[in-house]
Structure prediction request, 299 residues.
Amino acid sequence: MLDGLGDSVHEFYTVDGSVALAEKLAGFTGGTLAVHVNEMPIKCPVAPLEFAFLSDLCFKRRKMRDRVEIVYVTPLSAAFTKPVASKVLGTMLEERGIRLVTDFSAERVDAAGKKLVSYDGREVPFDLLVTVPTNMGDELIERSGMDDELRFIPTDPHTLRSKAHQNVFVIGDATDLPSSKAGSVAHFQSELLTENVLRAIKKEPLAAEFDGHSNCFIETGGRKAILIDFNYDVEPLPGRFPFPVIGPMPLLKPSRLNHLGKLAFRWVYWHMLLKARKIPFIPAKMSMAGKIFPRQVEG
Ligand SMILES: Cc1cc2nc3c(=O)[nH]c(=O)nc-3n(C[C@H](O)[C@H](O)[C@H](O)COP(=O)(O)OP(=O)(O)OC[C@H]3O[C@@H](n4cnc5c(N)ncnc54)[C@H](O)[C@@H]3O)c2cc1C
Prediction:
């Protein structure tokens, strides 16, 4: 529940918020569930889509799907930021009977009237609103004076050096970069950051190596997940990952193997990432191996 907005408005981006939402959902008997993204960028841009997919499954399992309308409300012009993935994810929303409301720039949440109101006067009524409020950087960044209007740090997209301060490097969610705010991005950046910090200390030219690489599983329900792998220039494409043809994981397609990959990642996190061991076959810079180009997709 968000402060001052009553019992019908919830979020899952904090621990307390997730617990409160779980309790609310357990007692939810039907009506309109609006899943809403207020403004980009947000941490893990696919998280609200996962929530919509898993809600659909949850209500089906509780045999009450016919009593729930699910609406996905986004400020974007499609289900996701990039066209090929948007088409796949948009179709998946449609197949599940989840209504997509795009280009919705929320002016306010009318908690008493139970509706979202956009600047252009559109309204989305709800019985339960699960919103992702505007994500901002930490207060610590504001206190440092290095922040932009969303409390992120203006950062060179390829060297990861602060644009304003030569002796500051930035990775992870704190940057203002157009790469996803995702753990995988922070990880790939960290591999390249070390090299540049060493170069800066030795007063050598920096390597402009970071390409915006992001790699992300999207839980789609029913023990299946989609895997996307992309960077600044290449949008998520279908194909195989990490190897062409043999994969084994399919890209941009729901599969059991991707779901198992996501579960296995827990072990990888604790036993490899935290111990600073390199993950084999997944380089910091995105590889085109196994990806099918849009021309081939259209054909
Ligand atoms: C609901 C949700 C789902 C997500 N799902 C995924 C996913 O499936 N895959 C994925 O890759 N990413 C996912 N993410 C995104 C991922 O969690 C973040 O992108 C990632 O954690 C960013 O790492 P970071 O180190 O930049 O920041 P953080 O992980 O936020 O780390 C910053 C740390 O700084 C600490 N800190 C703050 N202020 C101070 C201070 N003054 N002094 C000392 N320490 C301080 C904080 O306590 C925190 O531990 C998800 C995020 C959310 C919210």
About this structure: The chain has three domains: 9-132, 139-201, 214-298. The chain is about 30% helix and 20% strand. The chain has a mean pLDDT of 95.
